[in-house]
């Protein structure tokens, strides 16, 4: 409201506009509740974003009331207010309808965009629709309350901006050339920005993953974790740390975008979470800690990464099909070896590439078993004791049976402190004896052969066909660059005949997001063209309005470079929001220029008068929108990182957009009018755009 008070210099007028905010927001929340949409980070962000647009309609109406009151000081206040509202009704209706058309595709596009931003879109759409009726009905009534109408001296920007616009109109080719050059530079710079699904939240926490070869025992994993903890305990920047090892076989985390139902912590993997004192240089600290932990890794693979709020959305899964299980497992191992060399990529199973767990197979000799008369069930029972051990017993509880394992304490029992080697275990297994038919003991190695097994230990089926999965996680940045490196590596990897791979995870989700946003933007632009062409009875006005949409791109790209950002879902939604802002201001400006042309003004005078009369509401709208979004843009909360990116993108594009619309848009409209006039030299003169 400070921006409104600065321009109108009247407390009563400021309060009139301020009243429209709670009316619109309360009505919006009531409608959202009836639709079953709850208030959360995104819906509240939508309401905050809509505040600028809610005030926009009220500002345009109130500004026109000021203008009509000053132009017709002798007329009754009621007539001046009514004529001001009626005059702006087509433009406000068109701008409201087109803004709604911009957001509606987000709610119906489905997929990742619809799942995350449908509530955001509905909150904005409903708030804008309600604000239209508030601006048309409630605001004039409040302005006329007491029969006083509008009486105040507002700030006039016409003397200040007139020389600027005249200078731009005299050098229209230069202005248009500079605008196009900025657009080209913005497009070139925007193409170099990386892509990701969601922005990373710099929470000041670091994740450390310790992976040992499969088959490693829990004490072995614990020993490696203790090495890491000894390093962390001597690091002055580490405020606290916690370690989690072992596996319950249940998903540890999940999120709305996950395609795999969360992730399961494997028994050979430990995860540590670190909280830091100095959170400002997180990326530099991660690299430093990685170099510090590499020498103590031993047989483990240690990966240090930023612990953000995106869950397991940084995962990339390569699914292999088209062969038997052994062939697919070998191809998966080949891919792991190739991907392990990529910096910033953590490959599950990397610890098994050189020192993985060896599997053994026991091949029973049926003839020997029959010869010695040994019971096969006795053999299976003995061999079972050497395999994965079952639970000793269960304890009933209110939440179900709790499995319990019983172990002997080697210290208390005086047993050997060292663990038995694999060779010792295999010798003990081979020496197991069974009672033969004549009562003589028979060793297992007389009945079976124990040998190393290279075959698959499990068979996975997808649609009835075997498959193998290589799971990776992007721990470096930029994410899109690492994903491209993965695709390049896979393209140059020789796979067995018939084996094909498909990508899932973050790279697939980013591609899906881009496709959905392209659909949403295309539908939005089509709806805007239909609505504006219907209101203005032609196609020239829609084209003149939409010509400003690309101009906002340069401000968006500049804002992303300043914050070292990237293209992601909130940034693309912010671009879509800017489309609505462009359309709103463009419609109001073109509507005024066309009304001037219908009144008989020359093209130059119509453009100049229309631009000068709309500078104040445009700047007021821009200032209100920016001030509304500043709290989102400067927030330091990790939970609000999605809204923060959205606010920064809209502020960057909005500021640059209004600077362009103050001068460049008028030049584009006048150039188009001049061209039409020269082409139709021998025809009847018509306005630039039919009404």
TrEMBL record:
Taxonomy, superkingdom: Bacteria
Transmembrane segments: 12-31, 37-60, 81-108, 120-144, 175-195, 517-536, 543-563, 569-590
Keywords for this protein: Membrane, Transmembrane, Transmembrane helix
A cellular-component GO term for this protein: plasma membrane
MF annotations from Gene Ontology: xenobiotic transmembrane transporter activity
Protein name: Efflux RND transporter permease subunit
Organism: Cohnella ginsengisoli
Organism placement in taxonomy: Bacteria, Bacillati, Bacillota, Bacilli, Bacillales
